[in-house]
Structure formats: structure tokens, C-alpha cells
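Hi support team,

I'm opening this ticket because the web form for multi-chain structure prediction keeps timing out on my end. I have pasted the exact lines I submitted so you can reproduce it. The total is 793 residues across two entries, so I didn't expect it to be a heavy job. Is there a limit I'm missing, or should I split the entries? Thanks in advance, R.K.
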Amino acid sequence: MTSTPVTLVRPFPHPVELRRRIWYLDAAETRVFASRHALLVSAVLLWLVTLPRIDLDDMSGLGLLSVMPWTGYASLIVLTVSFFIGVHQGRAVFEMAVHLAILILILHATPALLSGTVRYSWAWKHIGIVDFIQRNGIVDPDIGVLDVYHNWPSAFGMAAFLTELAGFGSAASFAAWAPAVFNGLFVAALVSIFWSLTSNRRIVWTATWFFLITNWVGQDYFSPQAFTFFLYLVTIGILLRWFSKRPPVVVLSWAERFRLRVLRGAQVLRLILREGRVVGTETAIISHSDQEASTSLEDAAKSDDARGRLLATTLRGQRQTRLMFGIILVILAAIITSHPLTPMMMIVGLSGLVMVGVGAARMLPIVVAALTAVWMLTGASSFVTRQFEAVTEVTGLVTSNISATFLDLSSAAVSQVVIAWMGRSLVAAVVVLAAFGIIRWIRGGVFDLRPLVLLIAPLLMVVGGSYDGEAVFRVYLFALPFATFLGAHAFYPERAGGSSTRTAAAAIGVGLVLMTGFLFAYFGKEDQYTFSLDEVRAAESIYAGAPDGTLLIEGSPNYPSKFVFYERFVYVPISREPQTNRARILADPVGVLEEWMANRDYPESYLIITESQKAESDALGIMPAGSLDAIEAALLASPRFEAVFHTDNASVFRLADTKEGS
Amino acid sequence: MNRDLMWPGIVAVSTAAIVVVTVLQIGPPLAPPVAFWFVFVCPGLPYVRLLDLRDPLNEFLLAIALSLSIESIVSLVLLWRSAWTSGRMLQVVIAITLLGVLLDADRTGWRSVTTSRVEALRPDSIGRSND
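Hello R.K., no limit was hit. The queue was backed up. Here is the completed structure from your submission:
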């Protein structure tokens, strides 16, 4: 046998020439580069122009939207157009990854860059747990305040370790960047998951983009749930990529497709499910192409090609498989001891995968359930014992668990009603998009149960409880990756193929509509979620030297609170007081609050009122609009109170008599 | 340098760097990048490399997930024993990291170095190299 001589068509350039080509572009190359990246560069420039023009102090009821100049919206529109043109043209992975990275920066780094403080009051509480561990080197499962975190402390211990190693005094130094980091990690995990579900890169990129612009529920901040959600995605990714054999490909003739659609729907479905079990996987049916040979369903499912695809995704040898299982167990242990809800999501998700034949995961739901039970009976036993009755009371009450998530809009400001409905509309849009995608997916002849079960499984969690009114948010978050994956099929077929300009235009249109909903739902409450440095300093002025058992009266809990020495205080938020007490305070702020703060059960007493508290109280209608302003003004005018800290954004009071006495 | 030993080397150097940063109590701005790199990647990467995935995205993704998980579990054990300090935790994490580095180096580096030396001494390989 003679070998064919190889002709070197493109000789490798001389190193000097190569270096020149790397660093310098000629005119033609520059034009190509500029035309390819003009939109992307424009989007970045528009964003950079936008940042200094935003003044957070001017925010009104629509949050960041009320102060965003037109360049900010233009930046997102141009970036969206650039991204979907890239999807349409099938551009390189690196280019698409850059688009995603810039979107993450625009959406999730902007608040940190503008305010310089940590977003969300509850993120500050998590910083407080890290501070507790740094100071004490222990957790206290029976502690009276924020006890749930002491019962699931792993992630906080890790965060405390990171804080100390980095040389920071507090996790507040870096926690503002957590949303950007977590979204980056989510995207990497999602791309991995989507690549194992499809080989069509258009679907991968579109689904990932849709995830970023529909994940409005705010579970990406400095928190154990964001950490464990990332670990959940990684675990599901491992199972789909290395333990779930790829669907065998079945190529159908036009006659078979006709029978599939019209005559043999139920029969074929049964065959798919049976074949799925027989080969230990799900069966995908990819529609007929003239260039491909057609075979019968049964033969194709057992063909060498199908088996080759199955083997291609397995690990090399028993040693690697055992090691991968070991890694999964370590990740699961971290999830189980970091967050109470994610293991439940993991159990239902893994059970769903087992049901559709991901054979390697068969034991994992049982393992996770057993480990979770062990942790709840040991490390978290004190919390579980205290909460057992409350949990069993709401178990099965699906309607009330769902309704607990929704805000009571009857007394909310108009802007809040708009924002709430934008969020709900965005959820509805995702559901419609996913449904449309599923229909197109199945009509295209594809049937893969894995994303479907991972979409549906989290819904079971609303049976378990309301999770402090967050049940629907959590279900949405865990179902969202697979909803967007299926939603992307509304635009692109499973099998990689061409993309028409009309499809690209439709994707841009839908992307912009979803982005609009996201901006309202995610940034609409920014005046409540973003805190000024004044507010942080006001809280620090209290925490610095207060003794154990100090009474801290708060306008509402919505401010940077509990982030240092949190266990030393008894917290009394006015907004959470019974209606009669709130009415008494509003009628006579000085008299009632003086009476409360003079209580000799507490060594010291403080009262804090901030802009964010006022924004939340007024927007949600917790108290009549302007109530906290009125209380603050009354205390400032009273000689019986001393303002130990006062700026336009925050005030801290204590009794003037107390100071004199001490 | 043998390419197979590059990552074990990087992890070992990173471990040394975090020790220096901690012992000398170097704070920001130098400490955070060293600490974040170490905490996010180093303890898990050597074990993930044992899988020989040949897939950089998934290797780093798994390395981050495993690193943070290892540190979470170590912190949990120390918290449970009322013995949590960052110094003690660093000692345990470094031990886990270096064990992984040794296993990784043993799997890839030493074996490939030995193999390449044996290959180089074989007469037929000498002949091939002259072709």
C-alpha cells in the first residue's frame, strides 16, 4: 500500500512574521476585526459611559431603572444584538464566552461598582455569621438569632477561612462581588450541562443567555444557597456528562416520521421508554435527512454508532469512575451541611434522573437522603427539633406554600405593583417559552427525558413547605436552567444546522423582551436593596462598643444589620411590631420609644433609622408612607434623644438621659 | 519542564505562596489574589487531574467545586470540634493539597519522565529520532 504524499498548502510562517501577525493587524484584518466586534466594543463603551452618570441617591420607586441613563439600556440592547448575531453566525466559543462575561459584568458588577457596599440586607446577616466564626471559632446551634445558619455552617466556615487568608477583617470586603462570581460559576456549570444534552452550540449559548436574563429571583448573592446551587449544577453536570450515556441516534424515513406523528404516537412512545431502559439511557429520535441512511427504530437504537456514542462519554476505567464518585460524595457532603433546602432539590432531581434511566445515579438519591437524615439528626438536630412542628404543619399545603411567596400588593406603592407583576410575567414568559420549545423539540423528532425531569422535579418542593415565603423562588431557580434549555429549542433545532435571519431576529426580539422583564424584576427594588456607606457606618457606630444584651430598635430589618457582634443584641424592628404597637409609636414616637429604650433589662439601647428602611416601608406599605421619616424627625427634635450618628441617609439615637447617667 | 508536571508545580508553588502570605501576615492588595486562587482551585485540582478528563473547562469547574467542598467539610469538622482557626484549617487544607499534588505527580510526571528516559535508551527509538 502506497502512502499519499502530503502537500503543505499553508507553510507555517517564520517566527518573526508570526509575531508580527499576532501583534499587528493589516488594514484588511483590522476591518474584519472591527466589523466583527464593533457591536461588542460599543456595548462595553456605552456601559463604561453609563457608570459615572448613575447617581444612586436619586433613585425612586423603580430602583436602578429610575436613574439609568439611555446609554445603559443602549448598552444592553447592542450587546443582545451582538450576541445573537454571534449565535446566528456560529462564532467561536471564546467570542461567545466574552459576550456572556460582559453581560455578567453589566448586570452583576454594576451595583457593586456604584455603591461599594454589599447588596441585600440578608447578605449582611451572612457576613455576621462569618464574623461570629472568625471571632469564636465555633458555631452555636442553640443560639437565639439566625440559628439556622449555625445548624448548616459549612459554607460559612469556608467563607471565614477565605476572609482570614485574604487578610480582610470582614467578608463585607469582598461579598459585594459575590453575584458576579456566582453567576460566572453558574454559567460555566450550565455550559457544561448543556453540552452534555446537545451538540448544537446555538442551543447551548441561547439557553445560557436566557438563564442570565431570566434569573431575577436574587439567589446569587453572598449566601449558602448560591454556593450550593453551584454545587448542585456541577453534580448534575457530572451525572449527565459521565454517568448518563448519550441518547442513541435514530434516523427516520419520511414514512416513519409520518407514522410517528399520526399513526403510532403512543406505540413509539412506549418503544422509546422501553428502549431507554434496555440500553440504560433515553432515546433521541433525530429526523430524517436525505444524506443520512435511514434505519428502523430498533436497529438504530442498537447500532454500533449508537453504542459508540454511549462509550464515548464514559470514564476511562474503574479507578476513574470510583474517583469521580468520591468527588461527588465530597460535593454532596458540602451541600448537605451548608444548606437545608438544596439536598431536598438534589434528592428529587437525582430521583428523576434514575426514573429516566441514568443508571449510575440509582443509589445516589438514597445516599443523599441517608446523609441528609444523618445530618438532621446530629449536626442540625437542635434546629430540626425546634422547627419540626412548624414544618409538619405546612407540609402538603401546596396552595398556602405558594401564596406565602407572593407579596401582599394591596397596600404597596404603584411602582412595587408594576415590579411584582413584571417578575411574575417573566416567570410566565419562561414557562411559555419552555412549552413552545418542548413542542418544537418533540415535533422535530427528539425525545430526551433528562431535561424534562430536571425541569419538573423541583416543583415537588412546594409540597414540603414555604421556606420563609421563598418556596416558589427556589423552585423557579432550580427549574430555570432546564426551562431555558428547552426554551432555546423554540429557535434552534436539536440537530446542528443553519439558522435563518428570521430566527436570529426572533431570538433578539425575545431576548430583549426577557431583558426588559429582568431589569424591572431584578433592579426595580434597588432603592431597598442597595445601601449607602452612611448606612454601613451608622450600623458600625452601634456595633463597635455595645455590651451583650443591648436593645436595638430598627425602623425595619432592611439595612446593613447583624454583620458584626450580632449575637450581642436584642432586635426589635418597628415594622414587625403588632399593628397596635405601630399605631402607638406613630401617635407618640418620643413617648413610646423613650419608654421602650429606658427598660432597665437592657444595659444599653439604640434606635436606627435609614434610607433603605424608609424605602422598603413606604414601597411595601408596611406603615403609612413617611412614617419612619416622621419618627426620625420627632426624635431629632426631642431633647430626650441624642443622635449619636446622623447624616441624610441614616440616624442612630440613644436616650440623652442614659448618656448622662453612664 | 515536563508539561505533565506543570500543574502539580503550579499548585505546589501556590501552596508555598499562601504559606508565605499567612506567615508574613501580608494583607491586601497582595494577599487576596493569592488567597482566592488557592482557596478556589488548589485543593481540588490535583484530585480532578487524576481523572485524566482532558477537558479544561470541566477540569477547572470540578476543581473549583471540589476545592470549596473540601474546605467546607474541613471547616465543619473543626467547627464541630470547637477547634476552628484559620491557621489550623490552613494546615489541614495544605496537607490535603500536597497529598493530591504527590498523587498527581506520581501518576503523570514521574511515570512519564521514566517512560521517556526508557524510550530514549531503546535502540529503535534512537533510530526513529534520526529519521
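A quick check on our side: The two ends of chain B are 25 Å apart (CA to CA). Let us know if the file doesn't open in your viewer.
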